[in-house]
Design goal:
This protein is of the alpha+beta class. The protein has 3 domains: 2-114, Alpha-Beta Plaits; 120-354 and 573-621, FAD/NAD(P)-binding domain (3-Layer(bba) Sandwich); 357-567, no CATH class. It is 29% helix and 21% strand. The strands form 6 sheets. A 7-stranded mixed β-sheet has the order 14-15-18-13-21-19-20. A 5-stranded parallel β-sheet has the order 7-6-5-11-23, covered by helices on one side. α6 (170-181) packs parallel to α17 and α8 (241-252) packs across α17. The longest helix has 18 residues, at 604-621. The structure holds flavin-adenine dinucleotide. Residues 166-172, 189-192, 217-220, 223-225, 227-231, 295-296, 334-336, 339, 342, 421, 429, 431, 441, 443, 595-597, 601-604, 607 line the site of flavin-adenine dinucleotide. Residues 162-219 form the Pyridine nucleotide-disulphide oxidoreductase N-terminal domain. Residues 146-158 have a biased composition (Gly residues). Pfam families: FAD-depend_C, Pyr_redox.
């Protein structure tokens, strides 16, 4: 009886509901259309779709599926059916709900308690309430080393733990948010500038070729993902409570709420910049002390425990006059994977670092119209530079190739080659943090309306590849990256000019003749022998995979496709080992390595999730809550 009663409570989640493009209002509509009601009615076997009340349904996810194996392209929905509302508005649906049975991947019953989740601020406050903290949800004036005044969830009368969060990328921001909400005394230290000034520094780079080594596409408020495509896809379950908490937090700070529903959510730089400003204002209102243009140069260690950090004004490259020591009870290290000086400092402090596999390669750029027509055929005309009914086309390809180099292939399994960080309607940007090194990535604006499509084409590399260049030790991967970034800078001839080659010429090992296909990269491109950039086995893997990608995406190998060198910073080449439970470094007490730079995340959302969990772990270790979430 309980089982039967259950069916008439909570929510039924209906997945894989297909609506043909012609019947759907289009990618920007997240409402319940008549065509969608028909798809729903079919699943619950309700005879008259138009009698189903729209109010009883909400779209959980909407994706576009234009795979060639389908008879026609369609939008694919996941929809929640709220039983209570449905039965109130259409009591005749009772028997149909009663007969509904769960079907793997298609129909799922969610009891009431499984359906609620809020943004991170409400989650933390709920934890504090459970923990008996009457002041949960209030931001009180900070009291340092005095009466906690309800700020610290652990109770009044105790001083607040002083926590430094180093790095203002997604992982650092989310760690700072959680810790501030739990009532810790948080200082966020960021070597780069706030987004407003950072925007000006990036403008100077793109227009006048002036690189500020501390405020650029990698460093500054929001971290590496700010001037980016802002893709919010992650391999952590899309509908998982943690990912939803992060996405809802972004919505709270100004992201459009379609990111909660879109199958491939993305923001674009124009949406990220105001969002980060709101995030900052919220943190400041919660008492977080934010120090921009402040670089952590060293850790203060006493009795094998971190007790603070040495910082300097990041505009002062000699650290001569501005260096000062700041005391903290714990340091959350969220520095990303471009902070090469910070890794060196950690090594000098004997913090355990281990090399990690990552991937290197080139960035390929096609005209977006070509990718639209490869992916959509006749439907390509519906894209209309991001304003049409269907999304600007993207792609994702992965292949495994054998190493031709005997020394490597004997022991190794196949090497994977894949597209990475694809930016539809975007542009290629410079992500160097040093003028002698050249590396690139991609970004876009929310409309994705540029005439180009770019993506990294990369192959995995590991210690065996570093060995071939006689690179050993924990930072071998970083030296490996540097080697090819320097070679690319030389091939480009300096001044951040990027070496390029047509895909067709790369396959035939010949220099591309001018005129070259147009490139979105604004600092200039120069024809070069990119087939000589990497060791032969890497070039060969890239060539093999290009030929395989052509089978999947006919037209991908094109005279109009231009390869740009070099893509090296795909994920961290180093891991900073930490405890799975406490998030504390295995080699230095009081140090909490998090996010992409620590080797525990890759991408905006996973870095944010890692920062969030580290915030909970640090809060727990300082007794700010008891661990009940
Ligand atoms: P980061 O974002 O790298 O942040 C680290 C911060 O620490 C930086 O702001 C840095 O200035 C600061 N810092 C470093 N050292 C110090 C120090 N010693 N003292 C003080 N501060 C320091 N991911 C996606 O999921 N989707 C995308 O579309 C996407 N596009 C991208 C486009 C570009 C151009 C780039 C470069 C990256 C892109 N990524 C994307 C990757 C994504 O940005 C990262 O995975 C993510 O930002 C990692 O977050 P993080 O907080 O771990 O580190």
């Amino acid at each position: 009886a309980a089982k039967v009663k259950n069916k008439l409570e909570g929510v039924w989640r209906l997945s894989k509901l297909g609506v043909p493009v012609g019947d759907d209002p289009g990618k920007d509509s997240l409402g319940i259309s008549q065509a969608l009601l028909q798809a729903i009615a079919k699943v619950i076997e309700f005879p008259v779709a138009s009698m189903l009340p729209e109010e009883a349904f909400s779209v959980v996810r909407k994706s576009f599926d234009a795979r060639k194996i389908l008879k026609e392209a369609k939008f694919v929905y996941t929809v929640d059916l709220d039983v209570k509302t449905l039965l109130e508005l259409e009591p005749r649906a009772h028997d149909f709900i009663f007969r509904l049975e769960p079907k793997l991947g298609l129909v799922e019953h969610l009891p009431p308690e499984k359906t609620v989740s809020g943004d991170l601020i409400s989650v933390v406050n709920e934890c504090r309430r459970i923990n008996g903290d009457a002041a949960a949800g209030e931001h009180e004036p900070k009291v340092i080393n005095g009466n906690g005044g309800g700020g610290g969830g652990g109770g009044g009368g105790r001083s607040k733990p002083r926590i430094a969060v180093v790095g203002g990328g997604p992982s650092g921001l989310f760690a700072a948010l959680v810790l501030a909400e739990f009532g810790a005394d948080v200082t966020l230290i960021e070597r780069g500038q706030a987004v407003e000034e950072r925007g000006r520094d990036i403008g100077a780079l793109v227009v006048r070729k002036i690189l500020d080594m501390e405020s650029n596409f990698c460093f500054g408020e929001g971290g590496a993902g700010t001037w980016s495509d802002g893709k919010l896809v992650t391999r952590i379950g899309k509908n998982s409570a943690t990912v939803l908490a992060v996405l809802k937090t972004l919505v709270r700070f100004g992201a459009p709420d379609n990111i909660l529903v879109n199958g491939k959510p993305h923001l674009g730089t124009d949406k990220l910049v105001p969002l980060l400003r709101n995030f900052r204002h919220y943190l400041q209102s919660a008492g977080v002390n934010i120090k921009f243009r402040t670089r952590v140069d060293d850790l203060l260690v006493e009795d094998s425990r971190v007790v603070g950090v040495r910082v300097s004004d990041s505009a002062d490259h000699l650290q001569s006059s501005t260096s000062k020591d700041l005391k903290f009870d714990a340091v959350v290290l969220a520095v990303g994977h471009s902070a090469r000086d910070t890794y060196e400092m950690l090594l000098s402090r004997n913090v355990e670092l281990t090399p990690k596999d990552f991937a290197v390669g080139l960035r390929v750029e096609h005209p977006q119209e070509l990718i639209n027509s490869i992916q959509y055929s006749d439907l390509a005309s519906e894209v209309r530079k991001g304003r049409g009914k269907v999304p600007v086309a993207d792609y994702k390809v992965v292949q495994y190739v054998n190493d031709k180099d005997e020394e490597l292939s004997q022991s190794s399994s196949k090497r994977s080659c894949y597209s990475f960080c694809m930016c539809p309607g975007g542009q290629v940007v410079l992500t160097s943090t040093n003028p002698n090194e050249l590396c690139i990535n991609g970004m876009s604006f929310s409309r994705r309306s540029s005439k180009w499509a770019n993506a990294a084409l990369v192959v995995t590399v590991s210690a065996k590849d570093f060995d071939l260049l006689n690179l050993t030790g924990p930072l071998a991967g970083i030296e490996f990256q540097r080697e090819f970034e320097r070679r690319a800078a030389i091939m480009g001839g300096g001044n951040f000019t990027v070496p390029v080659q047509r895909v067709t010429d790369f396959l035939e090992s010949k220099l591309s003749e001018t005129p070259l296909p147009s490139s979105s990269y604004r600092l200039g491109v120069k024809s070069a022998n990119l087939h000589e950039l990497f060791p032969a086995h890497i070039t060969d893997s890239l060539r093999q995979s290009l030929s395989m990608f052509e089978k999947e995406l006919p037209g991908f190998i094109s005279e109009e496709a231009l390869l740009h060198g070099v893509e090296t910073r795909t994920s961290s080449p180093v891991r900073i080992p930490r405890s799975n439970e406490t998030y504390e470094s295995t080699s230095l007490e009081g140090l909490y390595p998090v996010g992409e730079g620590a080797g525990y995340a890759g991408g905006i959302v996973s870095a944010a999730v890692d920062g969030m969990f580290s915030g909970f772990a640090v809060a727990k270790s300082f007794d700010l809550f008891d661990g009940t979430v």
